[in-house]
Inverse folding.
């Protein structure tokens, strides 16, 4: 969305929000600091911080972008300024959830100057059939759309961990006027993708396009409507659950919508005047704006989240509405869209109380909630208006002994209004459902016929947590009332730790925090700290990247009990080596010059009483020992006497695949192991070298630049005939400036011009015979480079990354 409406509508609000976060000032990104994460630590308990409404750990949040589901995980992307509390320097933030309720914020998805174009509001899909041809591995691509005055495509081949930009940011659609906010859906009847994008060419409206592959788009038609301003959404819904009677819904940022028909080319509305799906304040300074529905849902539901602009706190601005299921239902006034909280909210219920068949009068003694208090909760109530004489009835929320309350929710029986929203009784009855959070209030009437999203600064002091049900001017029959206290949805996932271990992690000693690239643990002098997952194992392969930041040791822990009084731990010990130990026994030590500040890859293969330990992708175990103390237990991490950084914890997976012997050693940059292979992140040139050497050989591997500088590109490469510190070497790379290059220090030996795209995997092969060096690209049978150089006759094999983050996999050498 455009920032201009925010400044026009609520300039005073933005002025009040322009408070600096305790992070760096606003700036464009670079490879060295990508992604910009994490934020100052938070327990998500600040005043007005929603306990079950998503908000960013810090910074500004606005529109929901590209909500989608993939392989058991829901992904929420959102407009985000991580550098302050007001709109500025738009990024795409990212959070994930296993259930649409418990959200964990992840590193930035899209960042200025790392990804080109205006990174404003947009949408995205999971390309499960690889119609785009962008897939390079086993994961289905996430393809997202952003940009202003034209549409730019970004995509991820690692389930949303990292994103690249298609064709260097070339706009795949351009259109007249001011335009933004593309939304993409799959249209099954025509087997095509359909995109709608807002523009003001000739007035408000959307252009519709179709594509077979998400990359090449054909104009279909335009739907013009004066009410339709920015952030469109477009989706089908069955009327009353009847799939044979399906209508298409066209919405805008303010939650206005019309129903109609879509034949694959043209949208034909049934109404000329829109309805509103939510009756909160529907502007960029209000309480409900820019809602989108999730794509690729596993169960066919249509679930929406929207931006709640006016939720603010000490370190964040903006939150998201609780996910609501959208349906079309028939009412006396016609077919209307309903919004209702998803059933997964039940997972947060910690206690409950219920009452039935009461008569509520003006006498406080008839209030079943008398003496009841709660902080975050939901209320479900049904009233029978037959014979009712009360003019109004409802709830006081966060009430105090003096009769005041932070918010009153009333139904006006005479005017038939619920908190000012028109709502007629159904069969003489009225239903209310309230979601009460610390800074958010969502009101639903008659099973979602009325939806009203609001922000309220609730006072969570114990004396202000009362709940009251009362009537004015007479009586009304309460059919049923349920109160569910709701627990926190936070502190469930791992924001910066990449792992396939399931369940929650718990700290046993030490201080543990999220830092860029992993989990950091700190302990006092001569103290141990453990961070344990909920997953246990007996026989397995367990591996991860560990680094002593300062102090003595960082480690992988396994077969541990819940309080870590029993465990095996495999550490890198500064100045000593690699040690396998358990309480009461040092099982084995491999002497090695472990250096503070360097990342080491540890792997342990546990089979019964036998433990084999491998260092830095070595093929021969450095420790092969036995111990019978513990047969099974939890996986985790350990830090001793200092600070350690731990990342990429995987059980029973294949990471970096190579037939080269190790251990490997690095010259510069950060080298870690991901599920996709060996990852290097370097601002200049960085090398990771095997201990194996060769003279004449065939050397090949798969190389991929994840992201690089937009101006000068980035490169991923195979290095060979290198010396131990890589001051001498040959390197064959793919460079996103558009070349395959063979070079050595002091000389570019040869180049081959061809488009090289970040995010694409390229297969490089080098055939070295004496001074003749041939380079082959993507299994081609003719070398793209055939050159001679006599400088180096023999040396080590390795990997190289230049000014980028890159992943290299399937590295093998042969005769």
């Amino acid at each position: 969305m455009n920032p201009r409406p925010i400044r026009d509508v609520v300039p005073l609000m933005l002025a009040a929000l322009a408070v600096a976060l305790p992070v760096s000032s606003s700036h464009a990104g670079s490879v060295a600091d990508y992604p910009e994460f994490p934020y100052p630590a938070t327990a998500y308990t600040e005043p007005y911080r929603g306990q079950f409404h998503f908000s960013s750990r810090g910074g500004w949040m606005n529109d929901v972008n590209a909500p989608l589901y993939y392989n058991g995980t829901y992904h929420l992307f959102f407009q985000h300024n991580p550098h302050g509390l007001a709109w500025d320097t738009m990024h795409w933030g990212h959070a994930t959830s296993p259930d649409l309720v418990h959200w964990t914020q992840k590193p930035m998805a899209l960042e200025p100057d790392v990804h080109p174009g205006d990174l404003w509001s947009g949408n995205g899909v999971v390309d499960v059939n690889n119609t785009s041809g962008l897939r390079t591995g086993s994961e289905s691509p996430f393809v997202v759309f952003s940009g202003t005055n034209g549409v730019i495509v970004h995509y991820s081949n690692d389930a949303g961990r990292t994103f690249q930009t298609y064709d260097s940011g070339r706009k795949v659609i351009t259109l007249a006027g001011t335009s933004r906010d593309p939304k993409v859906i799959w249209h099954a009847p025509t087997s095509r993708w359909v995109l709608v994008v807002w523009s003001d060419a000739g007035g408000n409206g959307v252009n519709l396009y179709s594509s077979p592959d998400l990359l090449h788009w054909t104009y279909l038609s335009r739907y013009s409507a004066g009410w339709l301003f920015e952030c469109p959404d477009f989706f089908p819904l069955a009327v009353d659950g009847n799939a044979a009677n399906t209508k298409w819904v066209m919405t805008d940022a303010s939650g206005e919508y019309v129903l109609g028909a879509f034949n694959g080319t043209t949208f034909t509305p049934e109404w000329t005047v829109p309805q509103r799906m939510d009756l909160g304040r529907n502007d960029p300074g209000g309480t409900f704006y820019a809602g989108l529905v999730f794509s690729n849902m596993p169960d066919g539901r249509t679930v929406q989240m929207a931006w709640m602009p006016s939720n603010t706190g000490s370190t964040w601005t903006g939150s998201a509405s609780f996910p609501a299921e959208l349906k079309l239902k028939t009412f006396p006034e016609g077919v209307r869209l309903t919004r209702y909280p998803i059933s997964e909210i039940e997972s947060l219920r910690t206690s409950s109380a219920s009452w039935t068949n009461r008569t509520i009068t003006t006498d406080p003694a008839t209030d079943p909630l008398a003496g009841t208090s709660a902080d975050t909760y939901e209320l479900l109530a049904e009233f029978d208006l037959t014979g009712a004489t009360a003019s109004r009835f409802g709830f006081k929320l966060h009430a105090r002994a003096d009769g005041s309350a932070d918010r009153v929710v009333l139904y006006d029986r005479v005017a038939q209004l619920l908190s000012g929203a028109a709502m007629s009784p159904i069969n003489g009855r009225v239903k209310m459902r309230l979601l009460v959070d610390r800074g958010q209030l969502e009101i639903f009437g008659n099973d979602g016929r009325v939806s009203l999203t609001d922000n309220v600064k609730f006072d969570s002091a114990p004396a202000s947590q009362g709940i009251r049900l009362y009537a004015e001017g007479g009586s009304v029959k309460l059919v049923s009332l349920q109160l569910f206290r709701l627990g926190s949805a936070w502190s469930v996932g791992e924001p910066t730790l990449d792992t396939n271990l399931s369940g929650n992690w718990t700290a046993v000693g030490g201080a543990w925090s999220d830092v860029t690239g992993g989990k950091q643990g700190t302990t006092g002098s001569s103290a141990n700290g453990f961070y344990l997952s909920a997953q246990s194992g007996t026989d397995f392969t367990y591996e991860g990247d560990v680094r002593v930041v300062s102090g003595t040791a960082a480690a992988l822990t396994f077969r541990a009990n819940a309080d870590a009084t029993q465990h095996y731990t495999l550490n890198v010990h500064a100045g000593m080596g690699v040690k396998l130990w358990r309480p009461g026994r040092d099982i084995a030590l491999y002497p090695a010059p472990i250096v503070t500040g360097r990342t080491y890859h540890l792997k342990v293969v546990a089979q019964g009483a036998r433990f084999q330990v491998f260092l830095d992708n070595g093929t021969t175990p450095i420790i092969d020992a036995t111990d019978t103390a513990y047969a099974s237990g939890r996986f985790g991490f350990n830090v001793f006497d200092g600070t350690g950084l731990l990342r990429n914890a995987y059980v029973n997976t294949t990471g970096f695949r190579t037939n080269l012997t190790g251990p490997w050693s690095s010259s510069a940059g950060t080298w870690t192991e991901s599920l996709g292979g060996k990852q290097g992140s370097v601002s200049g040139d960085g090398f990771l070298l095997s201990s194996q050497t060769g003279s004449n050989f065939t050397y090949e591997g798969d190389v991929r630049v994840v992201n690089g500088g937009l101006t000068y590109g980035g490169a991923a490469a195979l290095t060979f005939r290198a010396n131990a510190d890589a001051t001498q070497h040959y390197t064959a790379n793919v460079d996103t400036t558009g070349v395959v290059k063979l070079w050595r220090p002091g000389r570019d030996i040869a180049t081959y011009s061809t488009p090289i795209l970040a995010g694409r995997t390229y297969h490089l092969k080098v055939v070295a015979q004496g001074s003749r060096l041939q380079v082959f690209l993507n299994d081609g049978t003719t070398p793209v480079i055939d050159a001679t150089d006599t400088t180096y006759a023999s040396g080590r094999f390795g990997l190289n990354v230049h000014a980028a983050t890159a992943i290299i996999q399937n590295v093998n050498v042969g005769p």
Observations:
- The longest strand covers residues 540-560.
- The CA atoms of residues 483 and 668 lie 58 Å apart.
